[in-house]
Amino acid sequence: DPVPSPQVIRPEPCCVCGSRIRFGKTAIKCCQCQLLLHTKCREQCPSLCTPRPHHHAWPREGVLADFAPSTPPLVPTLVVQCVTEVETRGLTETGLYRVPGAEQLVREWKRKLLRAGGALPALSSVTDIHVVCGVLKDFLRGLKEPLVTFSLHPAFLRAADIPDDAASDTALRHVVSKLPPANRDTLAFLMLHLLRVSHSPDCKMDVLNLSRVFGPTLVGHSSANPTPLAIMEDTPRQCKVVARLLSLPPSFWRGFVETEQENLVPV
């Protein structure tokens, strides 16, 4: 519900067109989600916000399962929507996931999506696809523990370190199967997405580039407060884990997220 706001005190980006609303200009501010837009952009702003009871909002931070749906595949709506948007209009963008989006827009959209809970506003109004990529990375980085979990972190590093590729793949498949279901399904969904990005010639983001970007985000460290030494030692190994995971066949990952295999527990 946009309402006119007072003049802008500091330059802020418009949530519709992405360009800055200059100091002293009148802008429109949504009283639901606090996003700002130029008065001239009001027509392009879909009516995104619907008032929702507070208990529907997601926590500001949590483990992945706190955001996952109750039926498989257990991939948070936020992740699905960001990935869908990126695949709809981002696979021709150079440097996808490497080029940063405007920090303030990333923060505002992440806050807006978390506040919306499962009923997400459309991301089609985010002009810059790098902002959508930023929201996804920021969401994954902001989890209380990384996607591979603190307890399985050492096992992932050990499996990726095995020199023989076939043995390394077998070990990684085994460790992936031990992840909590929501983490496992979301990792599978993201791997299939990143493989599609890596196969797009326009993106210029091969497996090595993507593993550098997503190593710290998906693998992280084995505790919430790693020592400086652990950070230094973990960084190259995080990238190695993601590169090895991306070398596993897509059919392995599809087994976790395809609808006909929703019930993974044998009857």
Radius of gyration from the CA trace?
20 Å
Give helix and strand order, one letter per element, not per position.
EEEEEHHHHHHHHH
Kindly provide the name of the CATH class of the largest domain. Mainly Alpha
Shape: elongated
Cα(first) to Cα(last) distance is: 49 Å
List the domain count as a whole number: 2
Mean pLDDT: 84
Strand content: 5-15%
Unreliable stretches covering 5 or more consecutive residues: 1-9, 50-56, 260-267
Helix content: 40-55%
Report the CATH architecture of the largest domain.
Answer: Orthogonal Bundle
- Report the sheet with the most strands, covering strand number, pairing sense and barrel closure: 3 strands, antiparallel
Query: Main sheet: which strands, in order across?
Result: 1-4-5
* CATH topology name of the largest domain: Phosphatidylinositol 3-kinase, Chain A
Give me the number of helical elements.
9
- How many beta strands in the DSSP annotation? 5
Q: Pairing-aware structural class of the strands and helices?
A: mainly alpha
Looking at this structure, what is the CATH superfamily of the largest domain?
Rho GTPase activation protein
